[in-house]
Prior knowledge:
single chain, alpha+beta, five-stranded mixed sheet, 11 helices, 5 strands
Amino acid sequence: MPIIEPEDKTLYGLEGVHLWHANLSSCSQRVRVALAEKGECFQSHLVDLSAGENASAEYQRIHPKGLVPAIVIDGDLIIESIDIIEEIDRRFSMGSLRPQGDQRSLEMYDIMRRADKAQPHLKLLTFEFLFSAAPPPSKEASENFQKNHKNDVLKKFHREFADGFERDRIEASVNSCHDDFVQLDNVLSDGREFLAGDKFTLADIAWMPNVHRFLLFGWPLKNYRFLPRWFECVSARESYKKALLDWQPQDLVDIVAPKIIARIEAGDGVQFYGRLEGWSGNGGPAA
């Protein structure tokens, strides 16, 4: 059951949709896409991750792991993004986000599970290639995060990022994400328009933010045969603009873009790691 019992009992009294989210969080983006597709408005509670607001006692009483997103729908709290988008589709009637037929449904859930499993790798690569180019958090914010956050796994991850990830770990995440994209490319090879068939579904919502994110730091999407066409299609949807582009902090993008380009020109961009290096999508070296 995706609904959990909150420590903050005032959540039970909330009516409508309340979303605690972050602008660049891929899991938050999924949820915002689902809400946009359903035409649902929500009460926004923006969590500033760079300032460590997810380490506050107040927020951790909402989300026990201190992560984003968290959503309350008419008093019910849900905290996992895959569970949230399923619940949004179930509760709000406008336009089903599920395919027709048992086989397509099984495909959709398999693709969603793969997206969920990809999150740790997406997170590591985001920090390595995107957030490393952004202004670092203040010393005070970092110390408060380590002191106040209850999620030991997350605290360890932030310490490892500050020390610098080992290349083997980066390579492993690049290879895992590349394997996922190859699998999705194979799924699309039968000519279908969307990941679970000819209809836009939760499977597409699960993967849209990942591809968008990786394009920000130069992932060579053009080397796949069918993914670029799929992404061109889904990124033309109004929900993509409302849920991703409208929330994207342009000032941050403007700061990191030159540094990402410089890293690529120095031969240290993401395309120079793991199986991406020299890969052109057809088994031969990149031109």
